[in-house]
Write a structure and sequence with these properties.
The chain is α/β, with parallel strands linked by helices. The protein is built from three helices and six strands, in the order E-H-E-H-E-E-E-H-E. Helix 1 runs parallel beside helix 2. It is globular and about 45 Å long.
């Protein structure tokens, strides 16, 4: 039987958006050494989760640069990255998952939920299942 390792990155909250990049690259490097093939990061790890912690205003240029640096680290480590991040869709900031292949190519970005407007009521399990991981435009 072949072993296939998947790592769930349990990393401390980054002090700054720049540190989120550094911590992600370090985790990718460490995972590669341990023979990991896929590493998954927490929701909105890049630039840092915006609830209860101070995070600078959203910056599309920072996000593009962060994704590029992490894609290069994925290619160097030869592993796939499932990156919790955020992105802009129609000028709205949304939580997203970016899938970066082992060659460093960005496969797909999935929108997980909108952050611009909170829900008026708690969603049902069926609604959550239908909304999760639909491809982002």
């Amino acid at each position: 039987m072949n072993t296939f390792r998947i790592a769930l990155a349990n990393i401390r909250f980054p002090a700054t958006p720049e540190e989120s990049i550094t911590l992600a690259v370090q985790a990718i490097d460490q995972a590669s050494i341990k023979g990991v093939r896929i590493i998954c990061f927490p929701e909105c790890f890049i630039p840092g989760y915006r609830v209860g912690k101070p995070v600078p205003p959203p910056d599309p240029e920072f996000l593009e640069r962060a994704w590029s640096v992490i894609a290069k680290a994925a290619a160097k480590a030869n592993l796939t990255v499932v990156l919790g991040t955020e992105r802009f869709v129609d000028s709205a900031l949304v939580a997203a998952v970016l899938v970066i292949d082992q060659d460093g190519s960005i496969r797909r970005a999935f929108r997980t939920r909108s952050r611009s407007t909170p829900p008026k009521r708690a969603p049902t399990h069926q609604a959550l299942a239908a909304a999760c991981f639909k491809p982002a435009p």
